[in-house]
Specification:
CATH class of chain A: Alpha Beta
CATH superfamily of chain B: Hotdog Thioesterase
Order of helices and strands of chain B: HEEEEHEEEEH
Number of strands of chain B: 8
Radius of gyration of chain B: 15 Å
Strand order of the largest sheet of chain B: 1-2-6-7-8-5
Largest interface: A-B, 39 and 40 residues
Distance between the termini of chain B: 14 Å
Number of strands of chain A: 8
Strand order of the largest sheet of chain A: 1-2-6-7-8-5
Order of helices and strands of chain A: HHEEEEHEEEE
Distance between the termini of chain A: 18 Å
Strand content of chain A: 35-45%
CATH architecture of chain B: Roll
Shape of chain A: globular
CATH architecture of chain A: Roll
CATH topology of chain A: Thiol Ester Dehydrase, Chain A
Number of domains of chain B: 1
CATH topology of chain B: Thiol Ester Dehydrase, Chain A
Helix content of chain A: 25-40%
Largest sheet of chain A: 6 strands, antiparallel
Oligomer: heterodimer
Radius of gyration of chain A: 14 Å
CATH class of chain B: Alpha Beta
Number of helices of chain B: 3
Strand content of chain B: 35-45%
Shape of chain B: globular
Chain lengths: 127, 147
């Protein structure tokens, strides 16, 4: 999956990594100064968190469906639950429905404790 | 506000226009933003970042006194693929401010506002961080006098 990730310029730009876990995969967003949105907290930019959630959803979809192209997002909704501090953020995606044409994916991102998520996402993709 | 946001600076975003309750921001096109290497289309998440930044600025422009602003939720609809090699612009309006919450809606386009490739709907919490915003601490007099 790392080859797929490396083929997406924006994933390299954000420095996102991917790890294989039981029953799926986990994406990793290392912290660095360039992704900060609020320097006083400091906190990761909300847009970067959103992009990371969307990327995690796409990676899971590619992994699950075996497609050779990047699924097109129809829409993506993000709930920001807490501010994301200056540390590594991780995310996992669940495919709620893998239809013939559309997939519905839920994503959860956290930092130190998976029970205290920083954001959740819900996306629909054209396969 | 933009120059105090490291990620906005990193992407080279610039403010095109602001007014009462609205903001227009441009994100210069660059190869690093591509999400689909075959179609050379900008990654949806980069559009989310642009719309989030414009939304926050639109909320700031709708407030009488500058307060902390935190994104509660943001939904982006991808109406079509953005054309490659062109700068992306977002125009967001903050159409309602209550005591605690601000509501925004906006579009993103590369040719003009009549033909958007994405639209968004978002909610922001106001005054979430006691002690003032980053901007208030950097510019202590902000909000005390009319701009």
């Amino acid at each position: 999956m790392i080859d797929v990730l490396n083929a997406i310029p924006y994933a390299r730009f954000l420095g996102v990594g991917v790890e294989r876990i039981a029953g799926g995969l986990e994406c990793v967003l290392p912290f660095r100064e360039a992704i900060v949105g609020n320097p006083m907290l400091p906190a990761v930019h909300g847009g970067v968190i959103g992009a990371f959630l969307e990327l995690t959803a796409i990676m899971r979809l590619i992994d699950e469906s075996g497609t050779d192209h990047v699924p097109k997002p129809i829409n993506f909704a993000i709930d920001y639950l807490r501010s994301a501090g200056p540390t590594t953020t991780r995310a996992r995606a669940d495919i709620f429905k893998l239809g013939r044409r559309i997939a519905v994916v839920h994503v959860l991102a956290w930092q130190d404790d998976p029970a205290r998520p920083v954001a959740s996402g819900n996306g629909k993709f054209l396969l | 506000m933009m120059s105090h946001t490291p990620h906005a600076r990193h992407l080279g975003m610039r403010v095109v226009e602001t007014g009462p309750g609205f903001a227009v921001i441009t994100l210069p096109y660059r190869a690093e933003l591509i999400g689909d290497p075959v179609r050379k289309v900008v990654f949806g998440g980069a559009i989310t970042t642009l719309l989030d930044q414009a939304s926050g600025l639109a909320v700031a422009c709708a407030l009488d006194i500058l307060r902390a602003i935190a994104t509660v939720d943001l939904r982006v609809d991808y109406l079509r693929a953005a054309a490659p090699d062109l700068d992306l612009t977002a125009r967001v309006e903050c159409y309602k401010v209550t005591r605690n919450v601000a509501f925004v809606r906006g579009i993103a386009y590369e040719h003009g506002p009549d033909d958007p490739f994405a639209s968004c709907l978002g909610t922001f919490m106001l005054g979430a961080h006691p002690g003032g915003t980053a901007f208030q601490r950097l510019v202590p007099d902000a909000g005390k006098e009319p701009a």
